[in-house]
Amino acid sequence: MSARRVIRAVAALGLLGAAAQLGIAPAHAEWVRGEVQLNVRTGPGPDRKIIASIATGDRATVLEHGDGWTLVRIADGQEGWIPAGFLNDQPPAAVRLERTETELKALQERLENTSKETNELRTNTGTLTATNRTLAAENERLDSENRDLKAGARWPEWIAGASILVMGMLMGAIMQTWTARRNHSRVRLD
Fold this sequence. Notes:
Layout: H1 3-21, E1 31-32, E2 37-41, E3 50-55, E4 60-65, E5 69-74, E6 79-83, E7 87-88, H2 93-185
Antiparallel strand pairs: 1-7, 2-3, 4-5, 5-6
C-alpha cells in the first residue's frame, strides 16, 4: 500500500471516528473501504458470533451507529454489526477503477466503430467523387455531342431552303424568258 493511501485511510478513519463520537452519521455510508475483509457479527463486539463477512467493494446499508460498531444490512439481506470506521459514502478505488475500465472499454468500442464508419464514409466519398467526375465528363461530352448534332441537324433545312429559293429564282427566270419570247414572237396587227 502506498504512503498516500495510508495517509488517506488514516485521515478518513479519523474523520469517521470523530463523526461517530459526535453522533453524526455519515450520509449514505454504504461501501466497505480499504483492502479489508470484515466479519459481520450478531452484536457489537469481537466476542459475538460471526454470521457473514464483507470485503472491499461490497455494499452495506447503515442501520445504526453504536459505540465503535455499526449495524448494517448486507447484500443478502442479513443484518449484523461491523467495527466502525470501515464504511465510506464513495465506492472504493477498486470499484471505481472497475467501472472506469468498463466505461473505457465501451468508449473504445464506440471509437473503433466510429473510426470504421468514418473510414467507410471516406471510401464511399472517394468512390462517389470519382463517379461524379466520370459522370460530369460524360455529361460534358454528351452536351458537346448534342450541340454538334443540333447544329448539324439544321444543314438539311438550310440546304432545302436554299434549294427552294434557287429553284424559285430559276423558275422565275425561265418563266420570264418564256413570257418575253411569247410577246416578241407574236405579230401584232393593229
